[in-house]
Amino acid sequence: MSWLVPKHFKLIFRTLLDYLTDALEEITESSELHGSLHAAIGFLPPQLRSIVNLLCFGQLTFAENGRLLNMPETTVKTYFYRSLPRLHSSLTSNVPCASIL
Question: How many domains is the chain partitioned into structurally?
Answer without folding.
Answer: 1
